Amino acid sequence: MIRGFSVAVIGFIAATVILTYPQAVALTTSVGPHYDALFSIWRLAWIAHQLPNHPLDLFNANIFYPEQLTLAYSDALLLQGLIAAPFLWIGFSAVLVHNVMLLATFVLSGAAMFWLVRELTKSESAGFVAGMIFAFQPYRFGHYTQLELLSGWWIPIAFWLFERAIVSASVARWSWLGAIIALQTLSSIYYGVFLVTALGILTVVRLPRSGIMPSAAMAKAVLSGVLVAAVMVIPYMIPYLSTRHIVGERSIGEVTNWSPHLSTYLVTTREHWLYGARLGDLAHPEGILFPGLTAVTLALMGAVPPSNRLRIAYVVLLLLAFDLSLGFNGLTYPLLYEVALPYRGLRAPGRLFVIVSAALSVLAGWGFVRIAESCRSRLQRVLVAAVAVTLIAAESATMPMSLVPVPTPDPVYRWLAQQPPSVVLEWPFPNTSRLGFTFDPNYMYFSTGHWHRLVNGYSGFHPPSYIKLLDGLTPFPTSTGIEALRKLGVEYLILHNVEPGEWNRVNQALQQSPSVRLVLTDSAMEANVAVYQIVGR
């Protein structure tokens, strides 16, 4: 058993290196093309920085000054941050740690699904096929820069524990299941909510035929799992509950806008070597839901009769998760939005595809077993497995991956790191009508070298105070705007020469302003950066 699992892990490592090429040879220099990658690096680095210094202020991150609990404006990546922290403390670069953890999600997802399907089918080949489907679908490459949305490997583990717990009244098994639910939530809040939903669906289908009737012993065991999950999750959720009055709920209109259409199940990434030119034209990071023809074919073969209660449960889970993933374009999501409070805080229903993918992978494992059982020799079964894995890889491959170099911090940040703690505003800052097009993630990444507080910020939510301030600073600079920054407590303005025309205008205006003084320029780089200090404080 251990030998087979080890061989499978080696196979998933090899597949990860190949299908994410050239990431494995650019671990310290490149990341995915969206600035969410820098956002993830900043989150990991912030947790490692804050834990040994002010752990009780972990969620009071250095962005969106003067707002509090700003780490709770998005998924905090708490579990990933705790894992990364020791490596960052001993000196590994945050980019390297982030990229290794990102690649590890593919291996862990494949290994977890392998374990589940091998246990359900008693076939290691079926487990590897299912693991390839779960680990390398286009959905995951569409979210390649979002570490939290790659961290769904706890879901197959939870399904495996559930199958063991549902046929017993074991307090230990249900407690372990509660712990896994909590670990998934600490890795990705979205996926924690979706996992609980999936287990609820499986329970409704499985419990009547699980072999035992509901009893006081079962109720005690289930309650133990609920308590374990609650003890682990509730302290983590307190900052999120505390910011609800600022962040608010996702409106029906917003969720509807982010709800995928049925056509998104035909969408891959634009870079997909096989389908991208035809199916990638409509690609959007929240709407890349193409499951692969091989996966669907195998799943259909696993779902057709003769069947049993366990297979039926995963068919029901697949169908309901598919409908839920369509959000307000489906039938069942509006009901969950009305009755389940966590769903009111979720913007992107398409991320429920992680449950679709999990159920699809399990059914595909059974489908592969049916094909393998028709083979007359071991050689035929090996060839069938090789063909299935090759087809899955071909439908998953996006290599060579589109990577971008990690931005290089300007030398002025080394100077800033030597200054007393202060508040910094960096320019250019975003226009309030286009908050998604911003240099703020770069500034946050650069702040990992100095950790001064930033007025700038990027997250899943922009607080009204930041939007109001940006409106008040436009056009920049004005005497009124600088006075507002002085009252806010801002000490330094850092200008970046990314738009030469605007740079000259802003730089000249600040040089003529009596409210600021130039304290530093990067003359070695032809004044690409300038630091001004607000005077008269």
Describe this structure in words.
The chain has helices at 2-19, 36-50, 78-89, 94-121, 124-135, 138-142, 147-150, 154-165, 171-187, 189-206, 216-242, 244-247, 252-258, 276-279, 293-303, 309-325, 333-339, 353-373, 378-396, 412-417, 440-447, 464-473, 479-488, 500-511; strands at residues 30-31, 404-405, 423-427, 453-454, 492-496, 516-521, 529-534. It has 537 residues and is mainly α. The protein has 2 domains: 2-28 and 93-396, no CATH class; 412-534, no CATH class. The strands form 2 sheets. A 5-stranded mixed sheet has the order 4-3-5-7-6, sandwiched between helices. A two-stranded antiparallel ribbon has the order 1-2. Strand 3 (423-427), helix 21 and strand 4 form a beta-alpha-beta unit. Helix 4 runs antiparallel to helix 5 (124-135) and helix 9 (171-187) runs parallel beside helix 11 (216-242). The longest helix is centred in the N-terminal third of the chain and has 28 residues, at 94-121. The N and C termini lie far apart (69 Å).
